[in-house]
Structures
1.
Amino acid sequence: MQKLLRQVALIGTLLASAISAAQTTNTPQVVVETGCQDKCGNVSIPYPFGTTKECYHDPDFLITCNDTDYNPPQPFLRKSNIEVTDISVDGKLYINQSIAKACYNESGAPLNRSNHYLSLAQFFISDTENKFIGVGCDTRAVISGFQGKNYQYTGGCLTICNGTEYVENYTCSGIGCCQTPIAKGMTYFDIEVKSYNNQTEVWDFNPCSYAFVVQEGKFNFTSDMLKDLRSVEQLPVVLDWSIGNKSCSNVVENNACQGNSACSDFENGLGYRCKCNDGYEGNPYLGCHGTYIYISLTKP
Ligand SMILES: *[C@@H]1O[C@H](CO)[C@@H](O)[C@H](O)[C@H]1NC(C)=O
Ligand SMILES: *[C@@H]1O[C@H](CO)[C@@H](O)[C@H](O)[C@H]1NC(C)=O
Ligand SMILES: *[C@@H]1O[C@H](CO)[C@@H](O)[C@H](O)[C@H]1NC(C)=O
Ligand SMILES: *[C@@H]1O[C@H](CO)[C@@H](O)[C@H](O)[C@H]1NC(C)=O
Ligand SMILES: *[C@@H]1O[C@H](CO)[C@@H](O)[C@H](O)[C@H]1NC(C)=O
Ligand SMILES: *[C@@H]1O[C@H](CO)[C@@H](O)[C@H](O)[C@H]1NC(C)=O
Ligand SMILES: *[C@@H]1O[C@H](CO)[C@@H](O)[C@H](O)[C@H]1NC(C)=O
Ligand SMILES: *[C@@H]1O[C@H](CO)[C@@H](O)[C@H](O)[C@H]1NC(C)=O
Ligand SMILES: *[C@@H]1O[C@H](CO)[C@@H](O)[C@H](O)[C@H]1NC(C)=O
Ligand SMILES: *[C@@H]1O[C@H](CO)[C@@H](O)[C@H](O)[C@H]1NC(C)=O
């Protein structure tokens, strides 16, 4: 009995290593022939996104691939200038956004000033994966957000300092750099950056004020940025996407989610999402496939 058990165990280990080898070298894959453009430059375009009417779920998911002016080709969200850098089927869309800045000359006359807004029909700015940040030593960073078309809120932070000696690197805790979370359910924001004294008191080490929304962990503040963040034009932002306006319990469409997947309610706004069932992977909007190979051992 002992011996038999050990043999079974041994066979088990051999099988397990054979299976794991098979899985890493030859993962079972479901290839769905759609005839749709599945890449734009380096960015994959999974359904429900698509570059043509036949390929996307609805016009919210239109990706415009610009291959005439960009090499590699650059995808944009719908017909906007919002640069898409990655799309995941678990409901995230990664984009690049410019930063708002206000610069002054030595005597306090305004130089370049650019505020910034982002307007999204349907998609939402991820409240869990982004932060709003202000950088400067004479800086008031203001974000105005709209939840849908109805509710507006204004938030923000300020940072005022006399010199760089108390500015701590690698943290954004109020001296030279301040941050606040983003509210849920925002489809629009407007960023404005201002200074109290036209940067005149701090000009020699901090001629500009900056403000931006950025993906958490993607901005690592250091004191030299007070002197110069002008070279940073774009920073990554994460959007949440979902389909339509209805939650799972109200989705009447048949087969809202495809094989081996289930409808999943969305926490940052309206609409529904699909999620592969446990043990399955792939694109739940097309159908998920198994990740395990099941082998039944019959008793000798
Ligand atoms: C595109 O992907 C290739 C291979 O992964 C990489 O070498 C290249 O730098 C990428 N280009 C851009 C613009 O990200
Ligand atoms: C590509 O981008 C350029 C420059 O932004 C623009 O003028 C052109 O219309 C775009 N082409 C397409 C097909 O969107
Ligand atoms: C700042 O700009 C104002 C207006 O353009 C100009 O009159 C002033 O001379 C400038 N000061 C310096 C120090 O460049
Ligand atoms: C500094 O800002 C104040 C108010 O914002 C403005 O009235 C003043 O003209 C500015 N100073 C300069 C030198 O531009
Ligand atoms: C102001 O903007 C112009 C054009 O966008 C740019 O060439 C210049 O370097 C900017 N100046 C500052 C101080 O950022
Ligand atoms: C910092 O600024 C305040 C207000 O302008 C001033 O009273 C104080 O002396 C300054 N401290 C230093 C160390 O410069
Ligand atoms: C910021 O940069 C420092 C030095 O490179 C590094 O030790 C730290 O882990 C970074 N922090 C983040 C949040 O990336
Ligand atoms: C913070 O980082 C900047 C740039 O890397 C460096 O010049 C400065 O000395 C650092 N400050 C401290 C307190 O370590
Ligand atoms: C997006 O921004 C990051 C960080 O600034 C930059 O490295 C990357 O090249 C940008 N991507 C595109 C497509 O512009
Ligand atoms: C969501 O609802 C609004 C009105 O409440 C409607 O205008 C819009 O077309 C709907 N969007 C989708 C994708 O159904």
2.
Amino acid sequence: MYLSKKSIKLLGLLLILVCTLVRCETQQIAAWRQQKNYAVNALYRHADAASGVALLQKLADSGVTEAHADLLFARLLGTGMTQDLETVAKDSAALVQEGEARAHTTQALLLAHNFTKEPKENEELAIEALYHYTIAAVKGDPLGEIVLAGHYARKGDCDSAMYNYKKAANFAIREISEEIVMSVEVKPYVYKEDYPKGAPKPPSPIEFEYLANLARYGDAQAAFQIGAVLSSGVPGVAKDQKQAAIYLQQAAKGNNTQAMVALANLHLHKMIEPNYAEALKLIKTAFQYGEVGAMTALGRMYMYGLGSLRRNLVEAIHFLEISVANGHLEALYLLGVIYDGPDGPGNMEDAIRLWEIPASLGHVHSAFRLAEAYRKKMEKAPATTLKLGSSYDVSERLCQKAMPLYRLVAMAGEWRHLMEAAYLDFNSGLHTQALLKYLLLSDMGYSEAHVNAARLIDNHADQVYEDENAMSTQSLLSWKRAANSGSPVGHLKLGDLYYYRQDFRKAITYYENAGDLPEALFSLAYMVEWGEGSLANFNAAKTMYESLAEKHGEAQFPVTLTLARMEIFLFLNNTCGIDLYKTPVNDYVIALIDIENLENFTSKLFVNSDSSNWDLLVMALLLVLIFFMLVVRQNNH
Ligand SMILES: *[C@@H]1O[C@H](CO)[C@@H](O)[C@H](O)[C@H]1NC(C)=O
Ligand SMILES: *[C@@H]1O[C@H](CO)[C@@H](O)[C@H](O)[C@H]1NC(C)=O
Ligand SMILES: *[C@@H]1O[C@H](CO)[C@@H](O)[C@H](O)[C@H]1NC(C)=O
């Protein structure tokens, strides 16, 4: 059968039309997908969450069903919209049926922390939660992948842990800019006391305002600091590269060389509309002043042939090596990338050596490259066990190196901004919103989140958990996680818990691991004094109290008080033969000066240590004590 010319033409036209429609459709879907990714990432950032929700709403209305699960997730965390746990609990079950990855994550978080209010045991809830996190992971939700990876890591299954962290890391690395170093990021605690010694704290609004004022009056260093804060974004101060550039510009005009490099880097990393000529000018000026960062930036420009500079690896290596000699992390990273590259002069081994330092310090891109390098070696390594006296598995050892690096990258994903968002919620009094965010981060293994979640449960969760038991179960869970992740305050809390349960041996172990926290040292001394968990030893306890006061100035007051009490005990024992450590009246005395009371006002003191009422308090307490002792005497006679 022959087709007429006309019908061939028509057929052709029809074909073209269909193709265009299909292409349009796939293009539309691709565009949606991209928009959805953007919107989901926006949910993690406090400043952008509302716009993320608006975009998701639009996508949902135009028929992108996946967006519903993301909206539900936003409602669960209270990010970009009002939190509503009951609605979420109802709707997520239905969405889970439809198989949305994020719906499984939502369901998992609800179950893991008993928000579905089912009369189930902890074990059972944990297993069901893990089941949903696992499905979320399999369906490609990076949050689920991280939770699952953590589960395998704790079980000692390195391969599975690495596999899941790697998946999340691959997703995360795309959004992570090359200068990010995780260890210098500020991780806010809701309680000031929880900051480990020397850890960076977010600037208070007053400090920030003060710096901004200094900058306004032309202080270049202050302008640089404000610019740096705005560029990285810290809790309470939203990231704003354009504003950052203005401050950095001002600082650069005041001859601040760090600001010149920082501003140049905003251009080089395309965080503002890049102007490579401007960047080069800044770098050259900073270079003349001998600023190390300028050499790295210049190396980067040669390495990638940015602006008017032609790509020139010899020049790049020259400048990067100067920076490397000065210990600049990013230079180590870039030099490694050149060595590992196809036209670099080195090989992967050289690159690995260079990346090891910045990776160990938390430089995310170095960690990622290094993890990939180890994994490549793993694939080549013989899987058999070598017998060399003791047996060890090459592949297992490489996994042990690669897995924590992938973890570092995975933890640096955009979702890490939920930590700041939660902190801001807490500051605005939105405790339940903060709690849900911290609980998710805690499930994902962020150690600061364990402590913050536990604090919020202890102090603000009574509306969430009507059931007293459910609440204390959750509190214990979070403190246990905190302790397991090495948090001193976690150990202290578990020590207290076991102390009240009269399990003194366990209490002592936890107190001893509480990293020299004054409250823990105090409890240990107290236990020695009263013979709890060991034989009572008056003098040893005294020494312990004294050394505590020497180590921690802020413990001076409770220690003085305690030592005074011990003197009275000793005096009564020696002169009247009343051993207050043995008499039944103990209970009263303890009730009066027991650890909880002391803890209460020591904790107040630690917060408010310049209070001038100490002596009054001491006297009042001693008076009450003497009164009790008189009562005891009367009873004895
Ligand atoms: C910056 O340095 C230049 C050249 O060294 C100098 O002329 C200028 O006065 C300096 N500006 C400030 C604000 O210190
Ligand atoms: C979960 O909550 C319910 C109701 O509030 C309670 O009966 C149950 O004991 C809780 N489960 C756990 C493990 O705390
Ligand atoms: C109290 O006195 C008794 C008997 O004199 C003595 O054995 C005991 O060690 C004394 N206790 C303290 C704490 O000094």
